[in-house]
Amino acid sequence: MFDGLKDKLSGFREDVEENAEVEEPAESDEPEGDEPVADESAAAEAPEADHVAESDADVAETAASGGSDDADDDNEPSTFQRAKAFATGRIIIEEEDLEEPLWDLEMALLESDVEMSVAERILETVREKMLGESRKQVETTGELVESALHDALLDVIAVGQFDFEERIAEADKPVTIVFTGVNGVGKTTSIAKLSEWLADRGYSSVMANGDTYRAGANEQIQEHADRLDRELISHDQGGDPAAVIYDGVEYAEANDIDVVLGDTAGRLHTSDDLMAQLEKIDRVVDPDMTLFVDEAVAGQDAVNRAKEFNDAAEIDGAILTKADADSSGGAAISVAYVTGKPILFLGTGQGYDDLTLFEPEELVESLLGEE
């Protein structure tokens, strides 16, 4: 999953390692026995050798006396930073070290269908965390790059994240969840998968088919309900979607069902009639959550649709299907940052058990090969 993006992130790390200036500790060059110390001119030619063994205070004093020219340049390491880095063997990353690798990273992210503003945010965070950086606990340039990438990716991926199971557990029952999105992205199948996910955790559910617009919609969701032994609430084609989901809520209240899973007709955000249906569902049913469903492999299209649906009828989170077939990872990286609403689940296969709770930290570790 997302193998193409993993390779590109690894390439960025290698590029920075090749370009970065790595200061290594100087070897001891102390004179033997009582041999006199070199004269002042020799010391001036090789100041580093004399300073390796000096205290941090001495290094700071030396840097302060000769580093005033750098004080006005916030983007470059100061003389003090350089002197101290040399004395301790730390890593100093400069602007020229990052210029080409960051350009290559930006192109790689965009090629992976990462949305432009998301790519820019990642680059900004990486630059801020690495430029002039000197970290004692980081032993190699590669580790410094990996730390910066980790923070930059988590910053955009984890936007709006909440504990889905905790929200289900703490909410008044029944919890009503409405699913929306365009046709053909696995919305109805995701409802069935989430019903199974809930059952595995001890929560009962009922399905309500609010997709009264599409021919064959009742038969499709009924097949899932039969396989999972779930109750399905449905009306004839052409019925009122809000009434169907409302009936589902009433059934759940009467039968102590924990969660109502309401399907809706696939729609474009530009379809005024269908968007009006969502508004009516929201008004009549007042769902606890509205989840947007799209395909991870749709990349930039999925990101754009998520934003458009969130603008037209506010969502609470997203499910990305076919994540197991997605090499680029652009949608998974971008959706939360663009909408301000979290990705909650990834569909990772054809089975009812193939629904994975989205864990931003785990995804970042996987992308960076930290597993």
From TrEMBL:
Keyword tags: Cell cycle, Cell division, Cell membrane, Cytoplasm, GTP-binding, Hydrolase, Membrane, Nucleotide-binding, Receptor
Subcellular location: Cell membrane; Cytoplasm
Sample GO molecular function, one term: GTPase activity
Gene giving rise to this polypeptide: ftsY
Keyword Flavoprotein among UniProt keywords: no
Name assigned to this protein: Signal recognition particle receptor FtsY
Record text on subunit structure and interactions: Part of the signal recognition particle protein translocation system, which is composed of SRP and FtsY.
Recorded catalytic activity of this chain's protein: GTP + H2O = GDP + phosphate + H(+)
Organism per entry: Halorubrum saccharovorum
